[in-house]
Structure formats: structure tokens, C-alpha cells
Amino acid sequence: MGNAKLVYAFTEGHAGMKALLGGKGANLAEMTRAGLPVPPGFTITTEAYHTFFRAGYRVPAELQRQVQEALRGLEVEKGQRFGEPLSPLLVSVRSGSVTSMPGMMDTILNLGLNDETVRGLASLSGNEPFAYDCYRRLIQMFGNVVLGVESIQFERLLHRLKAGLGIELDRDVPADGWRRLIEDYKQCVLRFANREFPQNVQEQLALAIEAVFKSWNNQRAQIYRQLNRIPDDQGTAVNVQSMVFGNRGDNCGTGVVFTRNPSDGESILYGEYLINAQGEDVVAGVRTPQSIGALRDEMPEVYKQLKSVCEKLERHYKDMQDIEFTVENGKLYILQTRNGKRTAQAALKLAADFVAEGVISREEALMRIEVSHLDQLLHRGLDESAIRDVLAVGLPASPGAATGMVALDADTAAAWRKEGKPVILVRSETTPEDIHGVLASEGVLTARGGMTSHAAVVARGMGKPCVCGCESLSIDEEQRKLSAGGGAISEGDWITLDGASGRVIRGCIPLKEAQVTEELLRILQWADDIRALQVYANADNPDDALTARRFGAEGIGLCRTEHMFFAPSRLPVMQRMILADTGQERQAALDELLPMQRDDFEGIFRAMEGRPVTIRLLDPPLHEFLPKLEELHAKFEAADNDIERSQYSRLIRKVKSLHEINPMLGHRGCRLGIVHPEIYDMQIEAIFKAALRCLEAGIRVSPDIMIPLVSDANELKLLRERVDEIAEQVLGDEKRKECGYKVGTMIEVPRAALTAGKIAAYADFFSFGTNDLTQMTFGYSRDDAEGKFLPNYLEQKLLPRNPFEVLDGEGVGQLIELAMMNGRARKPGLKTGICGEHGGDKESIAFCHRAGLHYVSCSPYRIPMARIAAAQAQIEHSQNIEFSAG
Ligand code: ADP
Ligand code: MG
Ligand code: MG
Questions:
Q1: CA distances from 695 to 602, 685, 688, 700, 886 (A)
Q2: Is 326 part of a structural domain of the chain?
Q3: What distance in Å separates the CA atoms of residue 515 and residue 512, rounded to the nearest whole number?
Q4: Residue 374 contacts residue 872 (beta carbons within 8 Å)
């Protein structure tokens, strides 16, 4: 690797070199080229990091040589020498990753100071306290970052010194005080790090560079990367920069400024500064900083310059900038600029404003929207100032905030809701039987289960806030109480959930409404103009369908009919149907269910006004509708007469007879519809009766009847014939044409994907059930995987991410592409889409776009995100095509 260039002076780089120079280094170079006042310095590349890493955390000789060369250049430019007592060069050593990771990695200031050079700095500056303050800061930062001494040790000594002197502020400490502290600091380093603070400045520099390299792998950096999907192998660059001092006196200072308000996007300078302070004092909170507006009065010249730098940088980068600056003796220096982090609300306003100002195009604006942040916007938030007592923190499973009275079971939740009380359903875990409780509540809290647990999925689907896996929560169902952390709560007490942060808060905290701003509407309109992929919603009832329409759904991609049976008024009828001993009894129960389903369908058709409604016939195994065996045994034991006892024992027999070794692969989906045709017949009849009512009322309908879990063409052939027959019976010839229904299947079993060519002969559409398809392609049962081994796999990076959250393009995706190809070869007009959680995920949406699907379907609240993600996929895709074409 001989003479590869591992070090670049700021004058040699530019903003396009982020991968090599890191974000900070590339931007320092870009600003230097643009003639902004940046203290000179150089950047050690990410490539050098990789060499360091490969060499087993050793700085290679070639890197040392190039650093020395660059340092000499810096000395010439500054007219100072590193380690020279009379006019010492001082530098900072700053981390600088490719993707900005604010505060995650380490930086050391004032390198080059030792017992001798500090005297040089004192006499040169004519300011002794300043020089010794710099020196003690160096020992403190170096001691912490390089030598691993806990900061608290230094802070304790500093505190003791100031208390002894009767002084409150650092800047009032006299030189003598700092000198004493420096001696204490040196002892402290010796004691805790078992070595002296190095007086040799070259050793300081080498160790500091090494430490910054190593900080790439410190724990907080790793966690941050995982959260933000930043690849571990990116590595970090290191910047060595000559120091400027904001702590030399009262015409000095340091601060941070955003070119616009990052919380609402308003076009004003936004930021803070401190007079007579260095670097991180602003964020460390030792003194309360002043807001940037005050600088206009305190240093009018500097303010004017800063404002013009802000304008220049914003125009240059075409985005809101987050800028670090330092003022030394009245002169302004810029130390960093980057695209500023922003709230979802600000992001939309900025995108819309920049388009209006002609700075960027609509496409560029759309590409800048971080769709996962829109969650923040589309759900209600908390009034933070009212929060006092946080009881526990769980997983932030479904965003938004909710406040209500604790209900410990679904029936109580439903009953209280009827009385008009807002409730929060609190359970150890939730099962499908709790669904009416979830429906009735403002939010859901569970002690067990992860972000993709049932409770979370259901709550997200309904747009309800949910906190899951709150392990410190213990629920006492007998005493109707729960305890969390230190506090106890009784059923009926008020609590508040913050689904975005996972906080569980005591009491009723005021909520702030979700903001569907004018900017959001404008941007969604741009997305709709651009995207090719249609966006459908998963909705199981008329209310959800209306919500979906409000958010812009172009159809329903998945209506799960079984959810209609879980409602408290219907479950007993369903159970009667399942438990029936005779065909007659069963038919009677079905006759009761039919009008209920018909009314649901009619409501949904009306809400969708002629847009496609994909209705999946009954899918789960029947035992899911029956009580749990343990529960029945308990009731059997507790029964006080023989009649009751015999009823329970009959139930127990029936539940046992429906028991399956592996229900996921058992008697469910179309297998149920084939063995018990009367159930599907009833559902199909209900659909067409609902359609007929609508047609007679002059409302257009477009039902897509979806047969689940098909693995062989014959299954679909048989069931399709039933659908056509019943359509004929209910609608007659003419209305049947007017109705224009479709029959299709979910492709969710690998064999269905493999034989899609044959299946397409009987299908008008394919809807990829990517949840089951993922389960069956990997051979994972989702709950077991997520509860047991998947987190471990992800931690070990055996899989890049959870395939239930982000569609596995490599494996599952291949099945989808194959099924599409063979399906369309057999039937060119075949309609295709996906339903399931993946439909709301940005990367999965991009996959669907590339694969050429017609639509994605997701929960109503994710529709705006999906519309934008679909536009982003289109923009990205067409750019790639242009790129590869020339
Ligand atoms: P972070 O990534 O934590 O912001 P930085 O490398 O940006 O770390 O530096 C931390 C602080 O030190 C910032 O306030 C920065 O402006 C300041 N700083 C860094 N280098 C210098 C320098 N050469 N002169 C003066 N201040 C500096
Ligand atoms: Mg910084
Ligand atoms: Mg399925």
C-alpha cells in the first residue's frame, strides 16, 4: 500500500470527498476552498483508519510519516512550531465519520501543551489564566478520552478547587488556581491510568489520533450506528486542526448556529453562544448560553459576518446548516458545518420553502424527506412541560401519545369505553382475543413482547400509541394493580403513554394534536404526481376504510374478515358455529353471522366509492376463536353445578380436538374453506349481497376476493368455481357484470410462488403475503424468531436486518420476482401487490417498485409515508436508469 495518500490538507479536499475525508473533513475543505475563515489543518482519511484497523490497531509508519509532513506544512502556515516553547502550535484532534454522528465520538482540544509550552502560550497571549486553563482542559480531555480516566474524577477536583477559592465560574479562577489543579490532575491521571500525562507533544498527537480511531468502536457509536443503519465498515476520518481560542477574554466566544429553526423550519438564525468559553462549554451546560440574537448587540460586526456566512453556506449546500463558530479577539472562525438535523415538521417546511425559493427541485425535496420521521407528525404528541413522574420506559412500539384510565383486561376496557371513559389497556401480553379491548382503548401497554409483537402490530395498524416489552411492569390481576419502577397504580388510575419514546407517565398529560400541515399536503401532491406504485390500505372495517381514504388510499389491499368475528357481540356466534354438533346448528350460526359480515362489507364498499377492496376469506385456524384450555380447566374446577361442569367438559373436548401440533402450518386458510365449504360460502354470499345493495343504491363496487394460503392451482380452481357460482346466484347475470369482481390469491407459501404460472390460470390477481412468505421461506415462526433467536442473529450481524420489518430482497424477493414473471407470462393482465407490514417500509417499497408490482398496501396511518416512499423509489430508479444509459 506503499505511498497511497493518507493525509489531505484542508486546501486539498472538497465536499465530494466525504467517503474518504469524513463529513467534517470534507466540509472543512469545502469551506476553506470557498474562502471562509477556517483555521488551517489536515484530515487523516478513512482509508488510513482501515489500514490502522487491519494492522491490529497500530498506526502504520507510512501514516506517521505523512502526518509529520502535513504538520510541518501547518507549522509553516501558522509561523509556529509544535512543541516549541516560545511560539507553540496547538491543535485539536477531531473525529469525523462519513455520516454525521453528533457527539458519538471523541475530540481533544489544545494538544501541544506541556509544562514548557504553556509558559510560552502565557507570555505570548499575555494572559496567564487563559494559558493554564487550556492546559488543564487538555489534561482533562486527554485523560478521559485517551487514558480512560472517568471525567467525574476531574470534575470532582475542579469542583473542590472552586469551592476552596469561593469561586463559582471557571473564568474567575486565577492562574495559580489552575496551576494547582494541573498538579492534582496529573496525580489523578497517574493514579487512575497508571501512567504520566505525556509531556512529549508528538506522543500526545500519536495517542490522540489512535484514540479517535478507536472511538469508532465505542459503545455509544455502535449503538448509534445500529439505530441509524450506518455500516460498521465505513470507518472514521480524523481531523487535525490548528486551535483558535474563544476563551481568551471578553471579546472571544464560541457557539452553534442553525441557519433556520430546526424545530419548526422558520427562516431565522437559531442558536446559542457563550462569551469567553471554549468548544464544548456550550453543550456541557456549565453556563447557560445566550441566544444568538443577543450577539447582534454584543458583537454587531461578528453577527453581521456570521449572518452572511450562514447565507453563503446555505446557498452553497442547498440545505439548512448547523454551524460551529468561535470568535477570537473579535475575529470570526468557522469550525464545522453540516446539514442540520430537524424535526419532521421542520423537514417538510424546509423542503417546501427551498422549492418555493427556487433552491431545489421537487424531486430533490422529496428525496430529502426521511419517511420514518413522518410518524412523529401523523400522531399526537405530549406537552413535555407537564411531565413529572415517568413510571417506566418500554419499547416505543407505535408512535403517538395517549392518556386514559388503566384497564387490566379487554372486557373492562370495552365496558368503560361504552361509559365514555378514555382507557389505556394494560396487559402482560395481548392475544387476538384482546382486539376489542385494543379497539376500545386510547393506547396499549404490555409488559412482554417486542416492537413487532401482536400488540404493536395491531396498535400501529389502528394508529394507536403502544408501549411494549415494558419489563419493569408487573401486573397483579387479583389485586387489580400494577407496579412499575418505584410506583404503584390501581386499575382506574390515569396514566399517559408516549409511543414515540416508550415512556409510561403517571397522570393525565395534556396532548398536542397531530399536524397535517399545508406543507405536507403540498409535498404529498408532488409525490402523487411522480410515483408509479399505487398505495392501498389494510383496513378491516368501515371506520378504518374512511381513515384510509382520508390519508389517500387508492384501494384496500387487505381486509381480514376474521377481525370482524372477534368483536364481543360476534365471538359467541362464531364459537357456536365452530362448536356445532350438527350441520343444522352450524348453518343456524352461519345465518346469524351473514348479515353482520354483509353490513361490514357494505360499509367498506361505501367508504371506498368504487375503489378496489381486497377481501381475504377466513384465514386463521378455528381454535383461535375458542377460549384457552387452561382457562376452561380453571372454569371447570370452579363450576358449582353439574350442568355447568358438563358444558365446560364438552368445550374442553372440542378445544382439544382442534388442537394442532403446528397451527401455522395446520388447518387454516383455503384448507379450512375446502374442508368446511359452508364457512366460505357464507362469506362469499355476504360479499355479493353487500355489493348488490350498493349497486342498487347506485354506488359502484369493486370487490377483489382473495383466497389465502393456496399452495396448488387445484385449490384455487375449486374455490374460484364456488365464488363464480355464488356470484351468479346472488347477482344474476347483469349485476354480475356490473359488479366486475375479481378472484385471486395470496402468494404466501413458497410452492405457490414456484408454481405461479399454473395458479395464474385461475387468478385475476396475486397479493404477496410477505409476512407468511417470509416465515415459510426462512422456516421461521415469527413470534418464536423475534422472541428467541432473531435479536441474537441481528446482533451478530448474521442477517443485515429483521426480515419481518424489511423485505428480504435476496431470498423472499426472488420468489416474488419469479412468481411475477411466470404469473404474467400466463396472464398478462395479472394484477399484483403486497400486503402486510412490509408495505409501509421504505426499502421494501423500493423493492416493490423495482419488481414492477402495481401496489403496496399498509396500515392507514402509514399511507402518507408510503406515498412519499413510492415517489422516492421512482425518482431513484429513473436516476439509476439515466445513469446506466449514459
Ligand atoms: P463534536 O463532533 O463532538 O462536535 P468537534 O470535533 O466538532 O466534536 O469538536 C468539539 C468542540 O470543539 C466543538 O465545539 C468545536 O467547535 C471545538 N473545536 C474543535 N476544534 C477546534 C479548534 N481547532 N479550535 C477551536 N475549537 C475547536
Ligand atoms: Mg462538532
Ligand atoms: Mg398469511
A1: 10, 15, 10, 6, 53
A2: yes
A3: 9
A4: no
CATH of the domain at 280: 3.30.470.20
Which range has highest mean pLDDT (570-574, 582-586, 662-666, 766-770)?
A: 766-770
Ligand with smallest separation from the Cα of 105: 1
Number of domains in the chain: 3
Ligand nearest to the CA of 774: 3
Q: Which of 835, 838, 848, 849 is catalytic?
A: 835
Q: Which atom of ligand 1 is nearest to the CA of 335?
A: 16
Is the predicted pLDDT of residue 769 greater than 80, yes or no?
yes
Residue 646 CA from chain centroid, whole number: 52
Chain segment 722-758, per-residue pLDDT in tens: 999 999 999 999 999 999 899 999 999 999 999 999 9
Within this chain, do residues 332 and 263 fall inside the same structural domain, yes or no? yes
- Apex CA 458: angle with CA 456 and CA 460, to 5°? 65
109 within domain boundaries? yes
| pLDDT on residue 513 | 73
Same domain, 174 and 39: yes
786 pocket-lining for ligand 1 (C-beta < 6 Å): no
Look up 436 and say whether it is catalytic: no
Question: What does the pLDDT read at residue 1?
Answer: 47
Ligand 1 contacts CB of residue 107 (under 6 A):
yes
- Could you say which of 308, 339, 370 is where a domain stops? 339
Q: Whose CA is nearest to atom 26 of ligand 1?
A: 279
873 domain residue, yes or no: no
Stretch among 329-333, 568-572, 706-710 having the lowest mean pLDDT: 568-572
Within 10 A of 693 (CB to CB), how many other CB atoms are there?
Answer: 17
Q: Check whether residue 335 and residue 211 sit in a common domain.
A: no
Measure 772 CA to ligand 3 centroid, in angstroms: 5
Q: Ligand 1: does its nearest atom lie under 6 Å from the Cβ of 337?
A: no
Q: Over the range 630-668, which residues count as b (16 or more CB within 10 Å of their CB) and which as e?
A: eebeebbeeeeeeeeeeebeebbebbeebeeeebeeeeb
CA distance 444 to 425: 5
**Cα(616) to centroid of ligand 3, in Å?**
10
Check pocket membership of 244 for ligand 1, CB cut-off 6 A.
Answer: yes
* pLDDT value at residue 487: 82
d(CA 524, CA 536): 15
The residue whose CA is least distant from atom 20 of ligand 1 is 92
Give the tens place of pLDDT for each residue, 383-413: 877 888 889 988 888 878 899 999 999 999 9
For 45-78, b/e burial (b = at least 16 CB within 10 A) is bbbbbebbbeeeeebeebbeebbeebbebbbeeb
Choose one of 182, 217, 242: the last residue of a domain.
Answer: 242
- Residue 104 sits in the same domain as residue 185: yes
pLDDT in tens, 439-496: 889 999 998 877 666 677 677 767 788 998 888 889 998 899 998 876 889 999 999 9
> What is the Cα–Cα distance from 853 to 823, expressed in whole angstroms?
12
- 177 in the same domain as 217: yes
Compute the half-sphere exposure of residue 429: CA atoms within 13 Å on the CB side of its CA: 12
Q: Is 835 a residue of the active site? A: yes
Which residues span the domain enclosing 499? 380-512
The CA 122 to ligand 1 mean position distance, Å, reads 22
Closest CA to 772 of 762, 763, 781: 781
End-to-end CA distance of the chain: give it in Å, rounded.
33
| Ligand 1 atom showing the smallest separation from residue 244 Cα | 24
Q: Is the CB of 335 under 6 A from ligand 1?
A: yes
Whether residues 195 and 142 fall in one domain: yes
Residues whose CB is less than 8 angstroms from the CB of residue 57 and which lie 6 or more positions away in sequence, other chains included: 210, 213, 214
Residue 730 domain flag: no
Mean pLDDT, residues 115-119 taken together: 97
